[in-house]
Structures are given as structure tokens and as C-alpha cells.
Amino acid sequence: RIEKLKELKDLPAVTTDGKQSMLVANIGTPKDVEGALKNGAEGIGLFRTEFLYMNRNDFPSEEEQFEAYKYVAEKMNGKPVTIRTLDIGGDKKLPYLNMPDEMNPFLGYRAIRLCLDEKEMFKTQLRALLRASAYGNILIMYPMISSVVEVRKANAILNEVKEELDTKGIKYDKNIKVGIMVEIPSAAVTADILAKEVDFFSIGTNDLCQYTLAVDRMNERIKDYYKPFNPAILRLIKNVIDASHKEGIFTAMCGEMAGDPLTTVILLGLGLDEFSMSASSIPNIKNIIRNVSYEKAKEFTEMVLNMSTPDEIEDASRKILYDII
Ligand code: PEP
Ligand code: MG
């Protein structure tokens, strides 16, 4: 079975009736690129940059970041590399940054909110990202966007950095794509508004589930309430994908749901363009996609969108998965 999955490495993730999806990898450090390539990733869908900032006593320099981003871009050799700007806060703190204790850290001062305040820190990262974009196919992604307001503020800072680079004659990809994580319910609901101002979406189901269902993703005691199959989650995902396609942009998913075999047929049926997951899950998900038709996936998805409970949807998904593989 493992051998058979290995043979899939260089084959596309295409349904029996010809609908192709992108299967890409989530990585946490530059070293992870090796595993991504070994498993046939067609790109990096989420490069979490927190590793650069954690377990140290001071900010990482522009040069250090530039080297890390450039390394990944070059290793991926023209394949897309989506790099997420700093998503610190919540449970992740930095000793060298003043981050006061909060009653609800996951609803607090984190990610883009913090970056928009710590402008010099943010500009350093954006400068490193832009410079690295001259060496490959880099896309920039902002985390924890709740409305178009943060997108505009972040883009204003990005434009400042671009102008500074232009003045100095430093090269970067002038057409670099800028997208957002859709992981806050307000962003999913207003996807039609956001789609007009970004180049792509990536749905972060880990946080989207946490915030939509009001279930702390770290709390074991309430884990039975954490259900990606909740109809609310499926409706939000559908809304995001439909809104993106209406504006001619693509939707990826980089939360755990994208690598869960039980959800593959639904996500396919909803029209998800790109699945980003830990590299080791790629062969398995590809195998599912290659053994189902898009027509059947759409039919199935229409059926489950009419169901009332997460368990009904999960049972139906288990059944269709067994039929397929
Ligand atoms: C998510 O929220 O789904 C996500 C991919 O980001 P993280 O797990 O890093 O919060
Ligand atoms: Mg998240």
C-alpha cells in the first residue's frame, strides 16, 4: 500500500473526470522542504514563520529571514511558496516583545493586530519577503484578518516597503501575490468584500472551527464540540470558495481539515482549489482525489449540505470514502 502511494508522487491530483487540484505542503522550518518534495508537494501552501522568532532573545534580523525565505523559494524551484507573516500571540509569546497577560489570549493581541502596531518589526519581515521573492515564486499571506480594514493597513505598509526597495534599486517580484488566511468567522462571512482586495484566500480551519464553534482548540474537555463537519463550518467554507471564484481568485485550505481523508470529497465538491497539509498526508489525499469523479463529489456535497448534524455528515463521509478506496 505504501509502495503504491509512492508511485503517485509525480502524478497530478486529478479526478476521474479531469478536475485538477493543487496538493501542497505546510512547513514550519526551511528543513521541512525536503519532506514536502519527497511526498510530491506541488508547492508550499503555508510556511509558518514563527520559528524564526521563537526560542531566542531578540528579533531575527532581516538578513536571517531573507536567507530562510530565499532557501525555501530556491529549493521549490519556481513552485509557489506561500509565506505567512508572523502569527505570534495567543499561546505563543516572545520574551523580547512586550505582550501583557490577557484574559482571552486567543481573542487578543496577536498576529496581524500586533504586526500593525509593531511597524518596524513588520517592515523588516516584509522587506525580507520581498527581497526573497526575486529568487522564486513567493506569495505573501496575512494571518488573523477580521475585515478588509486590516488588509488595507497591511498593504499600505507593504507598499511603503516596496517604495523603499524601488528607491534603492533592490529587486523583488513586482507582481507578488498577496492573500489572507480566512480563519475568523467575520472574514468568512464577508468573503465577497475581501475577495475584491486580495489575490487569494487560504482557509485556516483550525482557528475557523475554534472561533465559529466557540471551542478552545487546546481544551481536551470540550473536544467533542470541535467538529469540522458542523454544518456551520461547511457553509462558511462554501461561502468563501464561491466568493473567491466570483472574483476570479483561488481558495486554498491550510488547516488540519485539508489533510483529513474524511473531508476530501466534500472539499472537492465545494470546489476547493488547493489543499495544504503536512507533507506525509499528500499521497493519501491524492489517492482519494484520483479515484473519485468531480460530478460525484458535487452530488455528495449537495446532499451533505442538507444534513442537520455533524455526525450524520461524518458517517456519510466515512461511507463514501470506503466506496472510493
Ligand atoms: C489554522 O488556523 O487553521 C492555521 C492553519 O493556522 P495555525 O494552525 O497556525 O493557527
Ligand atoms: Mg490560525
Strand content: 5-15%
Give average pLDDT, whole number: 96
Ligands in the model, by name, code or SMILES, are:
phosphoenolpyruvate, magnesium ion
Inertia-based shape: globular
Nearest-angstrom radius of gyration? Answer: 20 Å
Separate helix tally: 15
Largest sheet: 8 strands, parallel, barrel
Range of helix content: 40-55%
Strand numbers in spatial order across the main sheet: 2-3-4-5-6-7-8-9
Distance between the termini: 11 Å
Write the element-wise H/E pattern from the N-terminal end onward: HEEHEHHEHHEHEHHEHHEHEHHH
Q: How many strand segments?
A: 9
Low-confidence stretches: none
**What structural class is derived from the secondary structure elements?**
alpha/beta
What's the layout of helices and strands?
Layout: H1 2-6, E1 13-14, E2 20-27, H2 33-38, E3 44-48, H3 50-53, H4 62-75, E4 80-84, H5 111-117, H6 119-132, E5 137-142, H7 148-168, E6 177-182, H8 185-189, H9 191-194, E7 200-203, H10 205-213, H11 231-246, E8 250-253, H12 264-270, E9 274-277, H13 282-289, H14 294-304, H15 310-324
Parallel strand pairs: 2-3, 2-9, 3-4, 4-5, 5-6, 6-7, 7-8, 8-9
Antiparallel strand pairs: 1-2
Helix pairs in contact: 4-6, 6-7, 12-14
Bound molecules: phosphoenolpyruvate and magnesium ion (MG).
Give an overview of the whole structure.
This protein has 325 residues and is α/β, with parallel strands linked by helices. It has 15 helices and nine strands. The protein has an eight-stranded parallel β-barrel, surrounded by four helices. Helix 4 packs parallel to helix 6 (119-132), helix 6 packs across helix 7 and helix 12 (264-270) crosses helix 14 (294-304). The N and C termini lie close together (11 Å). Magnesium ion (MG) is lined by residues 183, 204, 206-207.
